[in-house]
Amino acid sequence: PDPMKTLFVAWQSPEKPRPWYPIGRLDADPEAGLYRFQYVEGALRAGREAGFRNLVAFPQLQQVYESPELFPLFANRVLSPTRPEYKSLKDMLERPEAALDPLELLELAGGMRQTDHLEVFPALKAGSEGFFSTPFFVHGWRHLPLTSQQRLDSLVEGEALQVALEVNNPATGHAVQVQSSDYTVLGWAPRYLVADLGVCLPAPAAILQCHVKKVNHSSGSNQWKLLVELSGFVPAGHQPMSSQDYQPVGTGVSNSPVNAGAAILVA
After folding, report:
1. What's the whole-model pTM score?
2. What single string gives the DSSP state of each residue in 159-224?
3. What's the CA gap between 164 and 55, in Å, rounded?
4. What are 140-164's pLDDT values in tens digits?
5. Are 10 and 192 in contact (CB under 8 A)?
6. Per the CB 3.0–4.6 Å rule, which of 218, 234, 245, 251 could disulfide with 42?
């Protein structure tokens, strides 16, 4: 298997309706000491439509940045083991002893901070036969009525769930609902999956399967309440996250180390 992991970076416009754009990608092979960042075409569209400006850590749009270490922009977003949320996440992932991998933390936790408008998310990759499988935490459950939250608390590991395309979500327009087998809305899939799931959902229902991996039954407003696994097959000829927005724009490669929060590049 390919040891390289790919994460994307999304930027949210601060202006209503506050759309999200994919603006960059991080390819990482930690064992080989290789981390690579480059902008994607979505950054150009975000600039035209919403005034996006290049990140301070990566000032040149056309460059490919490389480093033997995780870039500070990402390292600073990895959930600290000293945070109470870290233990909650380890419990959900059933890793009570082993430390969580920084890239895994970024994939599942998103690396969001209150000081900017960035989010990190994993690439959705389909195999040669079109099969994909991805875990994610269900979003938005805290905004649902009590009946939905009670149904969520009644879920058990391995329980089959359903997904449904929502075309008039008041916040995002298109969205993908996660439902129980008795059609109770439990929350929503992350926004980065919506476009590709919108391609898959019109296919026969048996193509997609979703089930409960873990439920956090502790009290409080834990954002990591329900972890699910979604798997299935994309239609023939479709490759997830391959639209124009996701295409790299970088041309030159930098092999310089990274320090003090900003990547050093060589043209």
Report:
1. 0.83
2. -EEEEEEEEEETTTEEEEEEE-TT--EEEE--GGGHHHHHHHTTS-GGGEEEEEEEE--SSS--S-
3. 35
4. 898 899 999 999 999 999 999 999 9
5. yes
6. 245
What confidence score (pLDDT) does residue 204 get? 65
Residue among 33, 105, 43, 114 nearest 71 (CA) = 33
Phi/psi at 94 (5° precision): 55, 50
Take residue 178 and report the two structure tokens written for it.
């996660």
Q: Is the CB of residue 33 less than 8 Å from the CB of residue 222?
A: no
Q: How far apart are CA 131 and CA 221, in angstroms?
A: 34
> What are 117's two structure tokens?
């408008």
Tokens (6 digits) for 263:
């990547």
Q: Are 138 and 187 in contact (CB under 8 A)?
A: yes
CB 26 within 8 A of CB 55: no
